[in-house]
Amino acid sequence: MNKTTFGMGAVVVGLALLTLSAASSPAAQRPGYETYVVRKGDTLAKISGRVFGDTKRWREILKDNPQVTHANLIYPGDTLLVPVPQTAAPSGGTGGGLAARAGSEAGPSGAGPGSARTEIVAAPAATSAQGAVGSGSTPAAASGGGAGSGAEAGANIAAAAPEPSAERVRPVALVNPAVYRAAGYIADRLPAIAIVASQDDRILLGTNEAAIVNAPISPGTRFTLVRANRRVFHPVTGAYLGWLIRVLGTAEVTCRGERTSTVALRTTNDAASIGDYLIPIDPNDVLEQNVLAGRVQPECIPAGPCDGVIVAFNDDRRAAGEQDLVYIDIGTAAGVTPGRRFTIYQQIAPEGCVPMGELQVLRAGVQTSTALITTSFREVHVGFLLRAR
Q: What stretches of the chain show up as alpha helix (H) in DSSP?
């Protein structure tokens, strides 16, 4: 009985692999496109929302994928070509901001967060020192408004009073690296390796369960298991920043095929599914424990352009508060390192700036970073501005 059952299972897996070879191959790769793997529950409208930020542009995806004969005939594991938006030059203070103060201190450019070249720097203990930091291309503009020039931003807040010292609580909290490793990051492109089939067609996959990925890979190779939630566009400039990536766990290759491989999920923070991706584990990506500063009191915002902008939250919420994770539009190319603190504020032109709280960088990629809100006086929204402390 057991032998018969095993034989049938092998046949099912074999058929699945044959089906994958024929059905899930995308149209020929084209410059300016990347491959999206369909997930359970996806429709062209939902995919359009993730790709363009607009569910009504699904016809563009249908037109670019002639292998899809009907808008409703897409299935988990199918692959679609989606256009890659033109990436604007790295964000960096239109009016100066961190970039003007950093000069040659700007870090190296390269791959986006989460790649093998992501630079992770040990977090310094929290202090009140006001170190100079470099910046990328960050506009000095109010949340929800158009991007203004640095001169305009400076004029709007020129009357701001000098920054007084703030009463602080001693640092008492440590963030475990696993917490913010699982928080994710913003990546330049979709990963190339994806889960395209699952054992017994399971919708959700957990620890030690098997899945099929779309590439032949040597057994024993370990990967980080991630999910591409949606593309992120700058809330002020509209520039394309990349894909919001959520970390689900780790996986290891157990068997290599001619065109596919079998992987086993080794650790999971959340259930995985067809359409999730694998990225190589970088052995140099060792995150240090991050010492958090205490809460701060409201204080004045010095005159000058902003140093950065909050561009996304780690879920679909409309507002964030203390202990919530956010993503900002500056990274190591701007001299930002883990442990760096920023005041969160909203510019109310022409009256001035209203402080909203403070955040601390937990993980720094090249052009973007993951941060934790350590203090909030009011609700924090995407588009709020940042000033380095």
A: 2-23, 44-52, 58-64, 97-102, 150-156, 177-181
Structure tokens at 323: 């202990």
What is the torsional sign of CA 241, 320, 354, 133? negative
Kindly report the pTM of this predicted structure: 0.70
> Which tens digit of pLDDT belongs to each residue from 265-316?
999 988 999 999 999 987 776 666 667 776 777 777 777 789 999 999 987 7
**pLDDT of the residue at 314:** 82
The Cβ of residue 327 has, within 10 Å, a number of other Cβ atoms equal to: 25
CA atoms within 13 A on the CB side of 219: 6
Cis peptide before 350 (omega within 30 of 0): yes
- For the chain, give the longest Cα–Cα distance: 83
3-state secondary structure of 277: strand
E strands, 59-157, in order: 79-83
d(CA 334, CA 361): 13
Residue 143 confidence class, pLDDT cut points 50, 70, 90: very low
Phi, psi torsion values for 15, nearest 5 degrees: -65, -40
CA dist list (Å): 297 to 169, 290, 356, 370, 375: 10, 22, 10, 23, 9
Task: Report d(CA 49, CA 26) in Å as an integer.
Answer: 20
Task: Report the distance separating Cα 284 and Cα 116, nearest Å.
Answer: 8
**Which backbone phi and psi does 178 adopt, to 5 degrees?**
-65, -30
State the Cα–Cα distance between residues 80 and 24, nearest whole angstrom.
9
How many degrees, rounded to 5, is the angle at CA 316 between CA 314 and CA 321? Answer: 65
Sign of CA dihedral 244, 271, 180, 289: negative
- Chain CA centroid to CA 219, Å: 28
- In single-letter form, the type of residue at position 182 comes to A
Residues 360, 381: Cα–Cα separation, whole Å: 16
Q: What pLDDT, on a 0 to 100 scale, did the predictor assign at position 132?
A: 33
pLDDT band at 339 (very low <50, low <70, confident <90, very high): confident
Rounded CA separation 148/154 (Å)? 10
Sign of the CA dihedral with 356 first, then 294, 119, and 332 last: positive
Q: Quick: pLDDT tens for 164-217.
A: 444 444 445 677 767 767 778 999 899 999 999 988 888 889 999 999 999 999
Computed over every residue of the chain, the mean pLDDT equals 74
